[in-house]
Design brief:
By secondary structure, this protein is an alpha+beta fold. It has a four-stranded antiparallel β-sheet. The protein starts with a strand and ends in a 7-residue tail after the last helix. The relative contact order is 0.16.
Length: 85
Amino acid sequence: MRRSIDDALDDHPADDPERPPVSWAVALADDCDACGDGELRVVLTVEESGRAGAGLVAHLGPETARRLRVALAAALREIGEDPGP
């Protein structure tokens, strides 16, 4: 099973020759054979825009996905933004 949740490009200027645009995607999947447990994972994919299949894919269990959520919320608070619910 695989289900896409959301995806987008980062907010970095596309014309920066040192840092190309990056795409990210969040999905759910139960196909991580190496994870060994057959449980659903939050799948985070980050790759250079236009280079599908050449990026990094993280299979996050619930605890690690929550840790990432907390880190993103903390970063938003640091820049004066409301992290939302």
